[in-house]
Amino acid sequence: MSALLDIRDLRIRRKDGGNVLRGVSVTAAAREVHGLVGESGAGRTTVTRAILGMLPDDMRIAGGRIRFDDSDLLDMHPSPRRRLLGRHIATIPRDPLMALTPSRRIGRQVADVFRENLKFGRTESRRAALQLLEEVGVREPEHAAERYPYELSAVARQRVLIAIAFACSPKLVIADEPTAALDVTAQMQILRLIADMTESRRSALLFVTHDLSVVARMCDRVTVMHEGMVVEQGPVSQMLSKDAQPFTRALMASMPRHDRPGEILEPVPELVRAELRARVAEYDRRHR
Ligand SMILES: Nc1ncnc2c1ncn2[C@@H]1O[C@H](COP(=O)(O)OP(=O)(O)O)[C@@H](O)[C@H]1O
Ligand SMILES: [Mg+2]
């Protein structure tokens, strides 16, 4: 079976010459929940931005390819690419207030997705929007639909964004630490909702997280990154087992779990870091 998402040897550099992604390969099957884990600066966000064609101005692609559903994203012309992304790849942004249009009522913003992507008419898209708001757990959807983004709580706004992301049953949803701005109780609810929607819409999920309990509970497979390299990739059971590579084991032990607040975490041992540093240095010697 061919992968839904197939990133091969993706190399990204800063325009000043520094390497950001050092030959990253990630594959995810249809309906797979794939965790992207690593310490801050590992390159996880850069991977998601490369898929979405939204790299910062000072980064460029130096090599590799990204295939999605049999299209080569890096070779596509901008407009078919935008259509493909709009219809089949959705994102759950981290900051719901920034991601919603401040001056447009919630119900309209959800309905817009049905109008634009599925060409629903006005009545049909409004009905679909209300139904979806209810499905994602927005209370009193009729009432909420008439509100502006700032009038909703942070959790309700995140529910709205999840509604928008899953509205058209995308093949892939990308979520880059989507609960970072929420308190622990809200995080649990939102994670559950993301898992439920991923399941019911039969979407694949590429999930950037630093939370080990999220990895353990939600992911089918995991890619561990460090300094723009893939350290290890495999089924979650393997990645959480004693058979995982030393850095994977150390990273997992250093990751917090939202369901065990206050737990004492093990820092990644210096010896393990030193080995990775050597790999990075070796890559950089070959790719100046
Ligand atoms: N806008 C940017 N311009 C240049 N470098 C950036 C930018 N954003 C991030 N970086 C650098 O790219 C590397 C990877 O960062 P990032 O993909 O954000 O990692 P992660 O999401 O895993 O924390 C880091 O070294 C970071 O400093
Ligand atoms: Mg990031």
UniProtKB/TrEMBL annotation:
Is Amino-acid biosynthesis among the key words of this record? no
Organism domain of life: Bacteria
**Keywords attached to this entry:** ATP-binding, Cell membrane, Membrane, Nucleotide-binding, Transport
Which Pfam family is an annotated match for this chain, by its short name?
ABC_tran
Question: Domain ABC transporter, which positions?
Answer: 5-252
Tell me, in one coarse class, where this protein mainly resides.
membrane
Q: Which GO terms describe its cellular component?
A: plasma membrane
Q: Which GO terms describe its molecular function?
A: ATP binding; ATP hydrolysis activity
Compartments (UniProt record): Cell inner membrane
What is the membrane topology listed in the Swiss-Prot or TrEMBL record? Peripheral membrane protein
- Family in the record: Belongs to the ABC transporter superfamily.
- Protein name from the UniProt record: ABC transporter ATP-binding protein
- Which source organism? Minwuia thermotolerans
The beginning of the lineage is:
Bacteria, Pseudomonadati, Pseudomonadota, Alphaproteobacteria, Minwuiales
